[in-house]
Amino acid sequence: MKLSVPGVRRIPAVSSRFARVVLPAGLALAGLAAATAPSATAAPVDSLRPAQSASAAVLAAPDIPLANVKAHLTQLSSIAAANGGNRAHGRPGYLASVNYVKGKLDAAGFTTTVQQFTSSGATGYNLIADWPGGDPNQIVMAGSHLDSVTAGAGMNDNGSGSAAILETALAVSRAQLQPAKHLRFAWWGAEELGLVGSRYYVTNLPTADRAKITGYLNFDMIGSPNPGYFVYDDDPTIEQTFKDYYAGLGVPTEIETEGDGRSDHAPFKNAGVPVGGLFSGADYIKTAAQAQKWGGTSGQAFDRCYHSSCDTTANINDTALDRNSDAVAYAVWALSAAPVPPTGPTFENLTDVAIPDNGAAVTSAVTVTGLSGNAPPTLRVSVDVRHTWRGDVVLDLVGPSGTAYRLKNSSSSDSADNVIATYTVNASSELANGTWRLRAQDVASQDTGYINGWSLTF
């Protein structure tokens, strides 16, 4: 439905958001932009959007002490050594691991809950820890599986993720953080048997409570000895948050491609919860290009001790564990902060542009005038694309210089209608004044649509 006369116009500073992308109060993020993944330069803004990168909340995210994370790994290693060499589901080493983590959290002021389930004839345990405060209707959740395989102590898989989120939770307590959104941490049981613990949690969570989880962050194997820096290609806002952190370090990232079914984010994603996470690699082989980019040894697995007895505390790359632990905290601080509304001028084009089915790309132009200097690193691009299968649609913002900034990739599994979302683009290399274009292309057959309008907020 059109809300105004077609054409291009400037909206004064401190305007409202692009009229046709304002959401009804309470609309869940999961129904907005699930499975649309932008590149490192753009991310949708929605209920999970962090405060701007220069905000006090993000700047206050702590450096997680590597020594503390490794101390937790040492404790988990000692627990395994005292209990038959592993921390597997149904074995005493797993329950002892739960008790260790729970003791730390209880002492730090978290409200902890141990959830029991049964798998393979043995009792399993999930540990859930809630930090007091924050909006209970907007929950940011971070989780890792705490169990190992029976073959070994599981220090990288997944003592690394478990220790990192434990120390992040303790950092929340030390800071006495008062996030806008409620924080919840989880340690899952029986992941190695097929994501059993996390599936049990999600399945038994009432639908209304699932809808309150605005993002689930998963950390499984983040200290691999021959590491890569992989970011999950799932919720665009979470993905961009991690990419922003690594861009700040000057460390390139790649999209995690080993499959959505391999770790505990899968049950959440299948239930419509926005998900994301980090991964440093398992038994896949590091390529020469990856070794050139990240260091390490090409032709060798990221983790040669994957699911083996040699997955000990010696099987950890300190640099990867340190960086990824800091990234956990960065994301927790950023994604639980209150969003910052735009304050700059907005320019929009409300003219319909048909997108040909499985055809050439089309563009819609916005001409920006009256501004000085370059565009901001947080340029907001609000789009309203009507389409009967949005997974067919690829969207780019093209700056005055001709540089394209990917907003949305295609996805064969994204069968929902329409793309109605707001993205953040680092366009600081572009002059603000000039002609900007939204470029849209339908890359598969049978479904059709059109650009219904779009806007730029500086």
Describe this structure as you would to a colleague.
- The protein has 458 residues and is an alpha+beta fold.
- The chain has two domains: 8-46 and 341-457, Jelly Rolls (Sandwich); 57-335, Zn peptidases (Aminopeptidase, 3-Layer(aba) Sandwich), CATH 3.40.630.
- 26% of the residues lie in helices and 26% in strands.
- It contains eleven helices and 19 strands.
- The chain has helices at 30-33, 56-59, 66-81, 92-107, 155-175, 196-203, 207-210, 236-249, 265-270, 288-294, 318-335, and strands spanning 8-11, 42-45, 111-119, 122-130, 135-145, 181-188, 213-219, 230-231, 254-255, 275-279, 346-349, 353-355, 362-368, 379-387, 393-398, 404-408, 419-425, 434-442, 449-457.
- The protein has an eight-stranded mixed beta sheet, with helices on both faces. Strands 1, 2, 11, 12, 14, 17 and 19 form a seven-stranded antiparallel beta sheet that branches. The chain has a four-stranded antiparallel beta sheet with strand order 13-18-15-16, with no helix packed on it.
- Helix 3 packs antiparallel against helix 4 (92-107), helix 5 crosses helix 11 (318-335) and helix 8 crosses helix 11.
- It is elongated, with a radius of gyration of 23 Å.
- Residues 1-56 have low confidence and may be disordered.
Offer a few descriptive terms.
single chain, 458 residues, alpha+beta, Jelly Rolls, Aminopeptidase, eight-stranded mixed beta sheet, seven-stranded antiparallel beta sheet, 19 strands, elongated, disordered N terminus
Question: What's this, in brief?
Answer:
Helix content is 26%, strand content 26%.
